[in-house]
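User: Here's a structure from my thesis project, written as structure tokens. My advisor, Dr. K., wants to see whether a designed sequence matches the one we expressed. Can you design one independently, without my sequence as a hint?
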């Protein structure tokens, strides 16, 4: 009878080992990047353009949303540029917005897990919600398509170590429910949008942002922490209907795999509220991994018993 039991274990072992390998494969899948949650812009949510040193415009740029600068004071080119919103030059509103921008920037920069895209041109790629990281610079040549997969609350975060550059006439296209409120470009130095670019999402740069002639942020923001925002006959429109939520992000959605990752604040603005979701992927992987461990244990035990029987 024991022989039949051990033979059963021998047959079960490979099956469970296969399940364990499946769990390991799931761990490597980019779908786990769905842990991305909406960063918090606080009072900076009302701004379409915000700079640290200066805002400069050449031509008839139209900014729909607030425009501000702090701690710098200079805003030039308005008029002939137009601001459809309030303008704040080094006042208390601009100062508070800059403080909140730092919080939102750090939140976006610290989110994990991520998919490494270092060295890849964003042009031609079709991406689903998640966190995508470039350890150095990022380039967009052509069109990048962001697929919300039917979820209007989908979040895309691009963590870029140094510069972001778009070639002339490049574009960011949103499909299947993806919304500009949920698109975040966290840039470690400066961003330059090439002539005729059609950009979307919240562009947060540590240093400066330059929009060359005719480059538009069709729905999004240009927010530079320390440097200038330089404009040249552009259109920048703050996303509409980015509602605030007092609900903090689910702890399971803020998995941190690095001690350097900065903790994020509650979601209080800057995008649509993110519904909490049960971590079914993690439960599945945990269960499959447990079965794999059991399989290995059974195989080792059966082998040990066979060795004992052979020695008798």
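Assistant: Designed independently from the structure alone:
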């Amino acid at each position: 009878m024991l022989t039949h039991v051990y033979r059963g274990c021998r047959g079960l072992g490979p099956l469970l080992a296969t399940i364990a390998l499946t769990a390991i494969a799931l761990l490597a899948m980019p779908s786990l990047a769905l842990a991305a949650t909406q960063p918090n812009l606080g009072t900076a949510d009302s701004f379409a353009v915000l700079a640290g040193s200066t805002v400069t415009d050449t031509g008839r740029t139209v900014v729909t949303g607030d425009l501000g600068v702090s701690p710098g004071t200079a805003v030039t080119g308005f008029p002939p540029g137009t601001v459809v919103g309030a303008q704040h030059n080094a006042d208390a509103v601009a100062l508070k917005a800059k403080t909140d921008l730092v919080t939102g920037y750090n939140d976006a920069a610290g989110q994990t897990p991520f998919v490494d895209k270092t060295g890849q041109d964003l042009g031609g790629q079709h991406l689903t919600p998640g966190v995508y990281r470039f350890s150095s610079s990022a380039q967009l040549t052509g069109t990048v398509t962001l697929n919300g997969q039917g979820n209007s609350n989908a979040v895309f975060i691009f963590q870029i170590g140094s510069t972001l550059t778009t070639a002339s006439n490049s574009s960011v296209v949103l499909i299947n429910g993806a919304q500009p409120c949920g698109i975040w470009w966290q840039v470690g130095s400066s961003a330059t949008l090439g002539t005729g670019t059609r950009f979307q999402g919240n562009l947060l740069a540590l240093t400066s942002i330059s929009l060359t002639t005719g480059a538009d942020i069709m729905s999004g923001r240009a927010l530079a922490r320390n440097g200038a925002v330089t404009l040249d006959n552009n259109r920048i429109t703050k996303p509409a209907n980015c509602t605030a939520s007092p609900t903090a992000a689910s702890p399971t959605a803020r998995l941190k795999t690095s001690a350097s990752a900065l903790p994020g604040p509650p979601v209080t603005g800057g995008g649509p509220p993110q519904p909490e979701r049960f971590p079914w992927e993690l439960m599945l992987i945990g269960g499959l991994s447990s079965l794999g461990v059991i399989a290995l244990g059974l195989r080792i035990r059966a082998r040990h018993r066979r060795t004992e029987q052979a020695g008798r």
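When you compare it with your expressed construct, this may help: The two ends are 18 Å apart (CA to CA).
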